[in-house]
Design brief:
Elements lengths: L5 H5 L3 E11 L8 E6 L6 E6 L7 H4 L3 E5 L5 E3 L2 E3 L2 E2 L1 E3 L5 E3 L14
Antiparallel strand pairs: 1-2, 1-4, 2-3, 4-7, 5-6, 8-9
């Protein structure tokens, strides 16, 4: 494991947002959704491609809060520009389990 300095960690904007829209992403190389995540008035709504179809469906994602990196540059993923990176963990079979708060947090709140 490579160690980083505290100043490196402080550069990462990990924020909480609420998923407000979920669309299929049929042009993705691997099964994925296009998420629109509301990070509050300061940051606004950002779009992300998320390969989370193994454990989540569109209905149970709507209204769910997620933790995402919001200060990466936008990245072209297939036919969309992904504006944030929704975070999660791979379980034993490779499916992604979302990184989420265990109680409601205001949209845009930064990881402490």
């Amino acid at each position: 494991m490579k160690h980083i300095e505290w100043s490196d960690f402080q550069k990462i904007e990990l924020r909480i947002g609420t998923i407000i829209a979920v669309d299929d992403f049929p042009k993705a190389r691997n099964p994925a959704y296009i998420l629109r995540v509301d990070f509050g008035s300061e940051i606004g709504v950002k779009k992300s491609s998320a390969q989370i179809t193994d454990l989540y469906n569109k209905e149970n994602l709507l209204g769910r809060q997620v933790m995402a990196v919001v200060n990466f540059p936008a990245k072209q993923i297939g036919s969309i520009m992904s504006e944030c990176l929704v975070t999660g963990f791979h379980n034993d079979d490779g499916a992604v389990v979302l990184a989420v708060p265990d109680s409601q947090v205001a949209n845009g709140t930064r990881l402490a």
